[in-house]
Design a protein that fits this description.
The chain has 325 residues and is of the alpha+beta class. The protein contains ten helices and eleven strands. The protein has a domain of 40 residues: Winged helix-like DNA-binding domain superfamily/Winged helix DNA-binding domain (Arc Repressor Mutant, subunit A, Orthogonal Bundle). α2 crosses α3 and α7 packs across α8. The radius of gyration is 20 Å and the shape is globular.
Length: 325
């Protein structure tokens, strides 16, 4: 059953998705609510499962990693075995993203690895641990991707700031303190500086300086609340498409479409079975169908074929995953 939200709730979700590391005082000013009201509403959104994580979004290319997405069709498994498999994927040190899906695909994951050989080793190890679970799968490598805020929550089509991730994998020289900071913020982005300082064993000022450097070097792109769209009654889905004869101008037009569409949440360029992956929200099934039709019509000259996948739940986000030993 979808959670009923008022205008203030939606504004809170939007602000937390933009930058969840802002103080309660700053967010309260932006949503025009008292600090006490804001605190209560955030707690309720977490308790009811609308917000499941507060994370730092990292550009993994700056850590020398490449994003590999695996789209998995499971065999005829009983629910307990399917659940156990997903729990294993969530706990795996190399999975950056895990999602439960609907349609032809049952589970989607992203594995961060230094190269294709390391990825293959990680994926084969998963298959060896769970034989006969995976009926079929395909892999896409993601050299570049963009994430966008849910401006449709606040009825805004403009001012769509985005995070740009990817590029040539090249690990920056980071010290142990910076690595520990990234590890913490990738899972607990709202943790206060004082608490981070205690966990890392350095001063609060050192933490502040290190975080600023990581932001300036664009390792940390932003801090975001992970929202579960289905709890809001939204249909959340991804269009996976292969393209043909796409010029630079047409590619730019596609990027602009994603930027200006308030229902697009991210856009990925890929190498593999598909060339692009665009994630959408829709208010209902009718809007979902209209989005498919409109997208197919608008880009008919470059879209060769496409599939769509329902994203039922984001089980995990951890942009530091591939760095864990």
């Amino acid at each position: 059953m979808a959670i009923k939200l008022d205008v203030t709730d939606k504004r809170i979700l939007y602000e937390l998705e933009q930058n969840c590391r802002r103080s309660l005082n700053e967010i309260a000013k932006r949503v025009r609510a008292s600090k006490q009201t804001l605190h209560y509403r955030i707690e309720r959104l977490v308790r009811e499962g609308t917000i499941t994580q507060f994370i730092a979004i990292l550009n993994v290319a700056k850590l020398g990693l490449v994003n590999h997405e695996v789209w998995i069709q499971l065999g005829d498994l009983p629910e307990p075995k399917k659940k156990a498999f997903i729990e294993f994927l969530v706990s795996h040190k190399n999975t950056r993203w895990v999602a439960s899906c609907g349609g032809k695909i049952d589970v989607a994951i992203a594995i961060t690895a230094e190269n294709i050989v390391q990825f293959d080793s990680i994926w084969q190890d998963i298959l060896d641990k769970y034989p006969n679970h995976v009926k079929n799968y395909f892999v896409n490598v993601t050299p570049e991707y963009f994430t966008y805020p849910r401006t449709h929550l606040i009825g805004e089509n403009e001012n769509r700031h985005f995070s740009h991730l990817g590029g040539e994998p090249k690990r920056l020289q980071l010290d142990e303190t910076e690595m520990r900071i990234l590890d913490i913020l990738s899972k607990y982005a709202r943790m206060p500086l004082t608490e981070i300082a205690k966990k890392v064993g350095v001063t609060e000022n050192t933490i502040r300086t290190k975080i600023k450097r990581l932001e300036n070097d664009e390792v940390i792109q932003t801090y975001a609340a992970i929202i579960q769209p289905t709890t809001l009654g939204l249909v959340h889905f991804e269009i996976l498409a292969t393209t043909q004869n796409m010029t630079k101008e047409q590619e730019k037009a596609l990027e602009t479409y994603c930027l200006l569409n308030p229902y697009v949440t991210y856009y990925l360029r890929m190498i593999g079975k598909f060339d692009i992956d665009i994630a959408f929200d829709a208010n209902n099934n009718e809007q979902f169908q209209n989005t498919i039709i409109e997208f197919r019509s608008r880009f008919s000259g470059i879209i060769k074929e496409f599939e769509f996948v329902y994203i039922l739940k984001h089980e995990k986000f951890d942009y530091f995953a591939g760095m864990k030993k």
